[in-house]
Structure formats: structure tokens, C-alpha cells
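Problem 3 from the worked examples.
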Amino acid sequence: MPRSLPPLNALRAFEASARLGSFKAAADELGVTHGAISQHIRLLEDWLRAPLFERHHRRVLLTAAAQAYLSEVGPALDAIALATRRYGSGEGTVLRVNAPATFALRWLVPKLVNFQAQYPGVKVRLETSNEPLEALSGGYDVIIRGGPDSFYGFSARPFLVEERLPVCSPTLLKRLPLHEISDLRTHTLLHTLSLPRLWDDWLSKAGAGDLKPEAVLVLDHFYLTIQAALDGLGVAMGPTALVSEDLVQGRLVAPFSGPRLPSRSYCTYRPEVTDKGGLAASFCSWLEQEGNIRKPLERPRSAASRRPLQNKA
């Protein structure tokens, strides 16, 4: 006789809601709307001809029958997922991600080992590009860009905030101290070709718009600018999200505690039509966890950063 099976998406919605105790949390995990979860639960309840949840404010509780049902459905879904990983072709477990090159090099790649530990069966295929989202050809499961912006057919979620402030190597700071903003006159300022106004904007905000440095060095990629700062070639406008580990480890120092230039947050853009079994939503949630752990430092770790901000320019 043919198997009498309920819709798989309804089962996934039920299992996630029951495990998390919330339709909203289940929607976040599966990458769908709260309304979609409610619709799937109603569909399954109609199919079973029995209620599954007692609705309460902000929480849902399983009925006794649903508890028993979950004890069998949960392991069954785990077994299906395991069998798919073991015997599938593998193509369904490839997650295609597109991110800016500097972000990928400085932030994402060092952390991917954490994602792989949580999802060992998922193969992340990372490609780098700075093109606008609308200019990319299709096929990506997750696109990382600044935002949040609105694009038809994509859901956007911020996961990492960023600011910009001057950074340099401790060796350079020892040779040419920076006690006051006016001391930048004796330094080389490192610029990035694609962001030519960063230094002008920062100096203007610091009240030193007329300051002229000893020299200027322009590089065509942000990661080259950061590397030049690490190598002691000059002072760079460091994006806090991408240099936080260098500041903590002492490879870079921030000679001034402010001002700080605000910047757009890093966001994930995920196509709403497909999600390879929820992998893209899981990847986005993982990025949010990593981003929340490493927000911009409240105070850069250097002796000079403890001095009051002054300007005699």
C-alpha cells in the first residue's frame, strides 16, 4: 500500500516550532515568515485532524499527543537528513556565497572553520566581488553587501556593524608618536582608491580639515591598505570590523579614541524563492552569531587612545 505521508514542509515547521517553543523562532531558523509557519501548522493539524499546539502569548505549548508525535517525527527527520548527506550527490549541500574581497579575506575566511564544525556536510563555495547585488548573475544562495537595502526577491538581514578610525603599526607609532591629531603632519596617510574621501571626512570631523600630511600613498584595494598599515608604511583609516583582531593582538594600534566615521552595516541578502533545505538561513544565522560576538571595540587598545582628543592644527 502507498505510504500516507503529510507534507514534508509542514513536518519541518512542526518539528522546529515544537523544539524551539515558538513559531517566530521556527520561522527564523527555516528562513520563512511567521505566517508561513502558522499556515504549515494548520495544514498539518487539518491533515492529522487533531490540534498540535496550545497558543499562548509569545509561546506555544505542545499537546500530549503532539509530544508523542514529536518523539517519533524528530528522529525520522534526522535520519532523512543523515541519509541524504551520506548518499546524495553532494550538489545539494553546496552553499554558494558571494562577498567583498576584503571582508572575505579579513573576517569571513578565518571564521569559516566554525561554520564547518557545526555543519560538516555543507560545502561553502565562496566567491568574491564588489559588484552591486543587482549586477550579479544568479546562482548565489547568500550575498554579503552593505546595507540594509531593499531588493525585490531578496530578504536582507544585518549581522555586523562597522566604524572607521585611524590605525597604524606599534612600530611606526614608536618611531613617530601620535599624541595629538596635528602630529599626523609627520606621517604618511594611506588611502584606498575606491574610498578616496575617508581621510578628508575624518579630518573634517576631527576639526583638522586643513591638515597636510608628510606624504600620501594610494592603494587600489582595502586589504592592501590594511596590509600597508600592518607593515608600517603609514596610517590607515581602519574598518573596525576588519581590524578588531589586529587591535586586540597588538598588530595594530588606534592612536585616537575618536572621532569615528559611521559606516553601513554588513548584511546578508538571500533569495526568497529557494533555500536548499534551510542551509542559507542557517548560514545567515551563524553570521549573526559571529557578528554579535565581535562588535566594534568600545575603546581601541593602545596607550595613546587613553589620552584626551586634542587638535592644534
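Problem 4, a separate protein:
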Amino acid sequence: MNSELELLKIFRAAAEASSFREAAVRLGHSPQAVTRAVQALEHHYGELLFHRNTRQIRITRFGEELLRRSRPLLEQFDQLWEAPSRQRDVEINGTVRISAPHSMGSRAVIAAVREITRRHPELALDVRLSDQVADAVDEGIDVGIRVGFMRDSRFVARKARDMRLHIVASPELIAKTGAPAEPDSLASLPLIAAVDINTGRPWPWYLAGGQQFAPDKPALIADDADMELAGVLEGLGLAQMADYMVAPLIRNGQLIRLLAGHEPPAWGLYIYRPQRGPVSPRVRVVFDALHAAVAALPALDRH
């Protein structure tokens, strides 16, 4: 009874009913509670809101004016407070900012964007592709894709699938150099390395048993995974690349998978949002679409 808004809502119900008892039934209150609310408002305004007798109530002229002024505000509040899941024909709109690695742009993100815009044309998507680890909070990222497990407790992350790393080369290059039998043989072959934008140094190649191989003198260093892949297809060197990029090319014979027995354990591909607690419908739509698109990326064990 201490809420001014609640008092006005009870007053509205009483004004729309034939008695305080009927209003109480509609609201789930007692008739005494309705009476006390009306009395509190009458005390506040210094005006009588209802003429009442033992059989019925009749709103006063001042009460009619108060109802006219308060009803639109109460209806707006009801709409504002109603949970989106209970609203009819909710229109999902606004802007959602997405962060993803460059290699995901034309493979997973665009597929998700196509599906989202088809279903929710009023939703605007702001896509930022970068291989540098973004500060999601400072940059206003709503949903992102990240490789590897996320340990930040501020984030909500859901694994979409496993990602495996394959060492690959073109058939033409292997015909010239021969296939390496052991990881130690890699140092004598032309290699292509990916640069870690966060450090400026080439990424090491990850191998089974926690071992790593450092491509010390690569023939090509690239800061973009698609450039790296283009170099492999041109026969410029071997590279270690994500399965979702090379699996279709291995299956059709454009690339050869090397040292399969020395591949590291799978890494996780995660969809994340940097916010705990309730999530807006627009963010949920994008989160789920990205999760589905990443889960559908190709791998050697699927088509």
C-alpha cells in the first residue's frame, strides 16, 4: 500500500468495477485493502473519489478527471513492465554488435546474419572482425565468437563445437619436397606462419602431448588466415590451420593432411556475451544464430 503507483492501479480497478468487492476480486486483494487504497488517495488529494453506499459506488467528477489523467500512464507502465516473453507479436529491433575472428566472417558470421535478417528485418547487426582479443565490455560487444576456453566469470559462454588443427600442404608441394614423417622434419620444409596480432610474433604450431613447433624461418608470414590458406593452395609452404577452413579442401584433394598422428587435442569454439543475468530478445536471437552457424562449420568427421 506504500506504492503510489499501486494506489493508482487499485483506483483504476475500482473505477472500472461496480463495487470495491468486485475490484478486489479482479486484483486478488481484500475489499478492505481496496477501501484503504481509495481512502489514502482521497486523503492525498483532499477530494472525494467515489460516492458509495451499501449497494454500489459512483465515481465523482474529480475521480473521473483523475482516471482520465492516470489511465494512459498506467497503461504505458503495464506495457513497459510486461516481460517480452509474454508480449504478443514482439518486434525485435535495435542494434547488436558482433565480434569474431576474420576466418569466421565469410564462413559462420555471414550465415548467421543471413538467417537473422530474414527473420528479423528490423534488427541491425554491427559486425567487427578482428583476430586481436577484444575488450568486449569497453568496445560494447554484445555477442562474440572466441577460440579456446573463456575463464572470465563476467561472461556467459556456450561451446558450439570442437575445432581441430591440421597441418596441410598442396599436392604439388609434397610432390617436390616429400611428406614429413616426423615433426622434426618440418624445419627443413617451406612453411607458412600466422602472426599473433597480440604479440607480433608467429604463432607456434601445436602438437600432441603438449609439444610445440616454432616456425623460425617461414617462407610467408600472414596476419590473415585466408591469406595463409591462399599461400598453402599456391604451394608456397605447409601451414597448420583450423579444420573448418581446410576440411572441404582435404576431402576434394586440393590439400593433403600431414602428420595426423601428431595433431593436438581439439580446441573449443565458443559463443559468448559479456553480461550475466537477463538477456534481451535481440541478443538472444543473435547468440543462438551464431551458435547454430558455428556448430554447422565443416570438419573431417562431418560433411
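Solution to problem 4. The CA atoms of residues 148 and 275 lie 19 Å apart. The longest strand covers residues 156-163.
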